[in-house]
Batch of 4 targets.
Target 1
Amino acid sequence: MIHELRTYTLMPGKQGEYLKLNEQVGRKVRGDKYGKLEGSWTTEFGLLNQFVHLWNYPSLDERDRLRGELSKNDEWTKGYVPQIRPMLQAQENKILSVQLPFKPPVEPGHLYELRWYRTQVGKAGEWLGHFKAIMPVREKYSTNVGVWQTEAGQLNEVVHMWAYRDLNHRASVRGQVMQDPEWQAFLGKSSPLLIEMRSVILNPAPASPMK
């Protein structure tokens, strides 16, 4: 199984129109016939007017096959895509290998934090080893949604996602985690392996399966 994380940067002022088309047209045409949509979100802080969506495929070969089939769907290529293309300023994607079990929340009512860390060249595996070992400690405070390593896109990168009730819950959790001596020990071992850390807060889009 692989995941594909796609990020579209929208023209300012077009987010509402794009989300409406995505919900009412795009999702109805595509559904989960051409890859399973795990979740879709809009950015809350940092670079605004972004639409982030996470797709699930059995393999890279199956992704290529399904996207080929999608390109033959006239409702998609002639109906939906021409409507949204003028709203898009940029598109990015990452192919991700799953490193820990993917655990989307069952109940709705969350905001999400997506974090991606770039390691020194060749050090992603070592950093992941430390991260996996400390996960039982970290999950005493909040539950992880997913941990991935990039296979295409920016290499030497680990992506992880967390769900919180709201920003106050996130602040409380992170405050508690930073007081944990085991977490501090993890930071001492793992931080020297990193060269860049980024984070974005995500709100579920109207058509997102993950709420």
Target 2
Amino acid sequence: MLAQGLILFVLPALLVAAAAYDAASFTIPNRIQAGLLAAFVTFSLAVPLGTEAFAMHVLAGFVGLAIGFTLFALGYVGGGDAKLFACVTLWLGLSSILDYAITASLFGGLLTLMLLALRRIPLPQTLAAQGWIARLHDHRSGIPYGIALSLAALTILPHTDVFARGLG
């Protein structure tokens, strides 16, 4: 029951929160990543995941961290995005990293194209008065990639071993 709650409610809620924070402020608070880590540890004990499977998920998290911080160092994503990518790969495991990275890239590309197109259209005054919308619309702003990362995670999650274990 605990594992089901974590996989069906807590994980998705944290991912939605990450996307919302990123859209509103171009940041993803560390408490969201801490929540993702704590929820995974709790999940691994509730299932129980087992030592070998747990180690493989931790390895996936480190691979995700290496990928995320490489992208951060190259200036492609922010630090919060890099940490979110690592936390999601911890949850999804090694077998899903490639699917997740491809899906996140596709969603990130679509998000970028949509924002670039919307930024060419003047904002109505009522929307421009909202600070977070004005920042999101500003052509000098970056892309809140946490939205794409979260959406990709929610898309991939039902097709993962961890999801099946959580419902099993």
Target 3
Amino acid sequence: MKNYAIDLSLIPTTFDLWHVYLIAAVLVLALLLIILLLAMVIGMARRAKKRPAEIIKTVEVPSEPEVKIVEKIVEVEKIVQAPAPEPIVLKESSPDAALQLLGLLQKEARFIDFIKEDAGAYSDAEIGVAARVVHEGCNKTINEYFTLETVRTDQEGSKVTLAKGFDASEVRLTGNIVGQAPFTGRLIHKGWKVTDIRLPKLTAGHNANIIAPAEVEL
């Protein structure tokens, strides 16, 4: 009887590229097999769920001839739908009031003439003088026909806290907005709001599109 000797030096002690590929293939096949088994188990579990049973209730009425009333109760899943948001209605505003205000600013401050002028043709000093006249006229017009108040009475730069349910039309949040109110931050601008308007009434047939009529000297 022959004795077979095993040469241990022939056993590979390092992994070459082919061994790496072989191991990777085995792992991929094993992973696919596990996924396939899990899919089969989940499918069987879903099919094993019992469907809502129909309950049939029979009520016998003691009368002649005998009558059987069959009441079928079927369990139905209720689908709750969220209420549809209310449609946004845009209010149509007449441009006459805006045109009238432009006309008043032009009359008192030469506002249209100022903004339509080529500012590059004048020096900073000349622009500064003209801006002072426009500023005084605009300030006079606004104070005469509007009453303005600040939205917030706090000092700019101070810390303010906005409670839950604050009016988002009066306060605009900026910066890193995270979570829900109350919010605490620094007041950057007090804001402005109009509390009273005293624009003069327009006469019938007045063309509000004419901001300032052309002038002809005779």
Target 4
Amino acid sequence: MTAIDLNADLGEGFGRWRLTDDERLLSVVTSANVACGFHAGDAATMRRVCELAAERGVRIGAQVSYRDLAGFGRRAMDVPPEELTAEIAYQIGALEVFARAAGTRVSYVKPHGALYNRVVHDEEQAGAVVDGVLLADASLPVLGLPGSRLLKLAGKAGLPTVTEAFADRAYTEEGTLVPRGREGAVVTDPDAVVARSVSMARFGEVDAHGGARIRVRARSLCLHGDTPGAVDLARRIRERLLGAGVRVEAFA
């Protein structure tokens, strides 16, 4: 029987501003990618999301990013490897404090936004992220795009790796994500998002931007928490997955 983890980006607020409906999403997902303060999130938000996740038995992941609050971590940046390594470890460590205070721990690491896309191909930046994870905790799994430099380097370094697919993001024929600046990069039709989720979970396939059918083998499926109607969409996806015979559970 096929199994899939459902992860969502949570805690993406700052001060009085909140972007994601953390409490309701935590009743649906099995893993929470918690913003660690560099692209979004602050200490109080991180603590609150960790407490809610712990109450619901949802795994906590450190959603690490370039230092880019103004651009929500989606702007291209050139950060020296030594600096990026330290900043990755710093973000993981900050979230770990709140996770442990809530009676749990950080269970994995996932890059966000521009950093996520950069480490698909960039050896140097991917290596810096891996070094940052090793510095924080050499047992932490790394979540990323199948075939990415990040996962290859993480595997070589002895870190567990977890492949990820995206319910609401368009794919190129090479299996990478269509850049957000291009038309059609985000799939907005709820029915299409649900159908794509089931296809990727059951068959490891999805229609790329342009129509070609491509392979997308993944153990975790990302549902963006800042998508309009994200909670209802997440519930629909989970129900359809269960109805299709797919177990919804956190990755081992």
